[in-house]
DNA sequence: CAGTATCCTTAAAGATACTG
DNA sequence: CAGTATCTTTAAGGATACTG
């Protein structure tokens, strides 16, 4: 259960976590899903005008692979695909709040 | 005081924060300074064997510019430079703890 | 000791075109 | 509608040599 932390291992663990969020578009996708919002692929395209189809699909695949996002495919024609956060993905919201609070505590230069 | 948050602005704010930590070596440098530790440039070189001098200097400059790290130059020969966290930099530690807790709450795939 | 300066490599992202 | 595939661009990082 317990783990011996060195600077290197602790840094590596945090880095793993940050890498889940590190894509150019991942945070903005996540914020469009926080609060239980459900979005279709085309909704996200509309909400994030500057993203290319390649990047949208890629970032969604990575978020899905990392367990943050759940993808639902409805077998209809034309295709319908919905994205929502997993429960664990939702639980990221207060963590990011903590990050924002820290940011806002930054003293003036 | 108050701020109107949209998905885009909130994402941008979090991204700003993540960018302060995003360099390849920044986290490991930070973890070598948490807890009030003071390190000389050569200490960090020794503690982080794989880092090049260029990267060590560059990442330290960025951390300093972002207000996380304080640099003290002693006007002696040979030169002596010490790095320590600012108070605000120290206050990042519990925030990263929150991140690690979230990571550890990840359900098995 | 504590750095710069310069050149090179590589991964991420962007642009564009195509498809079941 | 919801994607792939392919090619090009760019910025971060790495290697190496030099210096006050």
Features:
homodimer; 6 helices; Arc Repressor Mutant, subunit A; alpha+beta; 3-stranded antiparallel β-sheet; DNA-binding; 109 residues
What would you note in describing this structure?
The structure is a homodimer of 109-residue chains. Chain A has 109 residues and is α+β, with helices and mostly antiparallel strands. The first copy, chain A, has one domain: Winged helix-like DNA-binding domain superfamily/Winged helix DNA-binding domain (Arc Repressor Mutant, subunit A). Chain A contains six helices and three strands. In chain A, a hairpin with a 5-residue loop joins strand 2 and strand 3. The longest helix of chain A has 15 residues. In chain A, 22% of the residues are buried. The mean pLDDT of chain A is 96. The interface between A and B is large, with 36 and 35 residues. The structure holds a DNA duplex (20 and 20 nucleotides).
Helix and strand topology:
The structure is a homodimer of 109-residue chains.
Chain A: H1 7-21, H2 26-31, E1 39-40, H3 41-47, H4 53-65, E2 69-74, E3 80-85, H5 87-90, H6 92-104
Antiparallel strand pairs in A: 1-3, 2-3
Chain B binds a DNA duplex (20 and 20 nucleotides) through helix 3 and helix 4.
Q: Strand sequence of the main sheet of chain A, in spatial order?
A: 1-3-2
Instruction: Count the E strands of chain A.
Output: 3
Please estimate the helix content of chain A: 40-55%
Oligomer: homodimer
Strand-and-helix sequence of chain A, N→C?
HHEHHEEHH
Whole-number mean pLDDT of chain A: 96
> How many helices of chain A in DSSP terms?
6
Q: Could you tell me the radius of gyration of chain A in angstroms?
A: 17 Å
What general form of chain A does the structure show? globular
Largest interface: A-B, 36 and 35 residues
How far apart the termini of chain A lie comes to 42 Å
**CATH topology of chain A, anyone?**
Arc Repressor Mutant, subunit A
Measured by DSSP, the beta-strand proportion of chain A falls in 5-15%
CATH superfamily of chain A: Winged helix-like DNA-binding domain superfamily/Winged helix DNA-binding domain
Q: How many domain units of chain A?
A: 1
């Amino acid at each position: 259960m317990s783990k011996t932390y060195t600077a290197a291992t602790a840094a590596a663990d945090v880095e793993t976590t940050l890498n889940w969020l590190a894509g150019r578009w991942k945070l903005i996708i996540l914020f469009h899903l926080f609060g239980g919002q459900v979005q279709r692929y085309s909704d996200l395209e509309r909400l994030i005008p500057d993203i290319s189809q390649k990047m949208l699909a890629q970032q969604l695949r990575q978020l899905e692979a990392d367990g943050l996002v759940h993808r639902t495919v409805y077998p209809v024609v034309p295709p319908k695909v919905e994205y929502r956060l997993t429960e664990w993905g939702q639980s990221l919201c207060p963590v990011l709040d903590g990050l924002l609070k820290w940011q806002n505590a930054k003293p003036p230069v």
